[in-house]
Amino acid sequence: MRAASYARWAAGAMAVALATTACGGGAGAGEGGAVLSSSWTDPQNPLEPANTNEVQGGKVLSMIFRGLKQYDPKTGEAKNMVAKRIATSDSQRFTVTLKDGWTFSDGEKVTAKSFVDAWNYGASLENNQKNAYFFSYIQGYDQVHPEQGEQRARTMSGLKVVDARTFTVTLSQKFSGFPDTLGYNAFVPLPRAFYKDHAGWLAKPVGNGPYTVQSYTRGSEMRLVRWDAYTGPDAARNDGVTLKVYTDNNTAYTDLMAGNLDLVDDVPAQQLKNVRADLDGRYLNTPAGIIQTLSFPHYDKRWTGSGADKVRKGLSRAIDREQITRTIFQGTRTPATDWTSPVLGAEGGYKAGLCGQWCEYDAAAARKLIEEGGGLPGGQVKITYNADTGSHKLWVDAVCNSINNALGKDRACVGNPMGTFADFRSKSTTQKLAGPFRAGWQMDYPLTQNFLQPLYYTNASSNDGKWSSPEFDRLVDRANAETDPTKAVKLFQQAEEVVRDEMAAIPLWYQNGSAGWSARLSDVTLNPFSVPVYEQIKVG
What is the pLDDT of residues 379-426, one digit of tens each? Predict the structure, then answer.
């Protein structure tokens, strides 16, 4: 998912009047006895699956949709969900067979055409979907989404409907990991209503998952209710979830403590010292596939000219990751030494220490590198971040203090707060930021490829800094085509070394998922993406 991711999700602003049954006092009051309330932030874009690449929208899509694959909430393994089987003999041509009995919440059957039409819509240049890039390996993508010029075809030649429950996918090159990507929300099916009444669907999306959207008021809340006719194996164990919008997670935590909220899935850094005592054990701190980085505007010549790579490396060496994670994050972050995540494991592509000296704090080395690189562009670094959570200000200030101390200048680095997450993403995704910016990444699927290609491949979907390297692209292409997983991992790590050698982005720390909840809830868990497994939570 989405930039964290990412990450990943939004909806058209339409308030729907709603009558609710009041329950007794305490968290979730007014929500109904078996409905839980959870903290949330307005997503960036409408809830089109192929147009959502950030975390908040992703939370919703993961509740209202099910795709061919579903990632195991404990292990992250990609397991068949709507797919009965995905067969291939050459890692380039795939035959997908669907299980029988799946429907959308409006009663329409989920068919092969539901997937093929959705993927063609997502890939289309005319539809301007942020996740179009995820379809780029399908044959014919270059015709529906050319790099230059107008769209030359309506559909991708690599997608063919065979019958109601079978379709084929032909890729433009071998991609052994392709089936494991299909749990990502860009690949979910869409009903006919999505195309017939697009505005109406955006206001109240129709999916095939355990929940349906009852209403959404931007800036206030989204109400989701259990879909009782859902036939999947992971039906909701509660009556619904109300996602309440907060512009400060400290306020959400205060509401949790006051009994006005049931679940906070991002415990603010200021509360980490007290959270275990405050919540009497109702707290989780678990590893997640999330990394926080500082990205650079490579579209700005001041950051890409001669010697700029030394400036970027110098800034990395000026950041004391050990001290920052220890003093601010209280064990919920670990200093990053590569650009992936430890949750992948060594076999999955994580390589501790790959960053080498460039991720080790050394003030003298930092000063030398920045001087050799020509100094800070404009004489000062301004780190842009969204200010609608208290946590980002804390760590950005700490990073700037570390840089200032290393360089011996009080204002060498300053924070540059931007109102809301949506505002921040609008600027970062349209290349309108003038200096470094926070670029946390939450994995879409548990593959090394997902930590590298969407962020650093030329013109990739989440390559907001517009870094480009032909050598990196070449190595990623070779890795994707490799059918031996061990050889593929080695090639991805070689590509990662290119990111390191040019310091395309500065890795800061690996992030754990955290959550705190009220006494009304039980069976609260976080998946490897750090998102609550809402359908498993019991209320009462």
Answer: 999 999 998 866 799 999 999 999 999 999 999 999 999 988 888 989
CA distance 524 to 36: 11
Please report the DSSP string for 298-353 in residue order.
Answer: TTSGGGTSTTHHHHHHHHHHT--HHHHHHHTSTTSEEE-SSSS-GGGHHHHT--TT
Angle at which helices 390-407 and 249-258 cross, to 10°: 140
Question: What does the block give as tokens for 57?
Answer: 């929208």
- Count CB neighbours of 444 within 10 A: 30
- The residue ranges of DSSP E strands in 11-157, in sequence order, are 35-40, 69-71, 78-80, 83-88, 93-98
Q: Quick one: three-class SS letters along 42-69?
A: CCCCCCCHHHCCCHHHHHHHHHHCCCCE
> Residue 288 — φ and ψ, nearest 5°?
-145, 160
pLDDT value of position 9: 27
Give the dihedral of Cα atoms 129, 135, 137, 141; nearest 10 deg.
-60
Residues 144/156, Cβ–Cβ less than 8 Å: yes
Q: Label residues 297-322 b or e (16+ Cβ within 10 Å = b).
A: bbebeebbeeebbbbbbbbbbbbbbe
Q: Contact, 324 vs 492, CB < 8 A? A: no
DSSP readout, 164-229? TTEEEEEBSS--TTHHHHTTSGGG----THHHHTHHHHHHS---SSSEEEEEEETTTEEEEEE-TT
- pLDDT at residue 33, as a whole number: 67
Q: What residues contact residue 352 under an 8 Å CB cut-off, 6+ apart?
A: 337, 338, 342
Consecutive 10-residue averages of pLDDT for the chain (540 residues): 36 30 33 84 91 90 98 93 97 97 98 98 96 94 96 98 98 92 96 97 96 96 98 97 94 96 92 92 92 96 93 98 93 94 92 98 98 96 87 93 96 93 89 93 90 94 94 95 91 98 98 94 94 96
Whether 158 contacts 139, CB under 8 Å? yes
At 6 the pLDDT is: 31
pLDDT for res 16 = 29
- Whether the Cβ atoms of residue 363 and residue 405 lie closer than 8 Å to each other: yes
β-partners of residue 287 are 512
pLDDT of residue 26: 35
Rounded CA-CA distance 330/186 in Å is 35
What's the pLDDT score for residue 390? 62
pTM, two decimal places:
0.80
Q: Is 416 exposed, middle or buried (0-12, 13-18, 19+ CB in 10 A)?
A: middle
Helix/strand/coil percent split, the chain, to 5? 35, 20, 45
What DSSP string runs through 417-485? EES-HHHHHHHHTTT---S-EE--EE-SSSSHHHHHHHHHSTT-TT-TT----HHHHHHHHHHHH--SH
Name the nearest CA neighbour of 242 among 21, 421, 66, 50: 21
Please choose, from the candidates 84, 69, 344, the residue with its C-alpha nearest in 3D space to the C-alpha of residue 186.
Answer: 69
Element (H, E) at 263: strand 263-264
Dist. CA 399–CA 322, nearest whole Å: 11
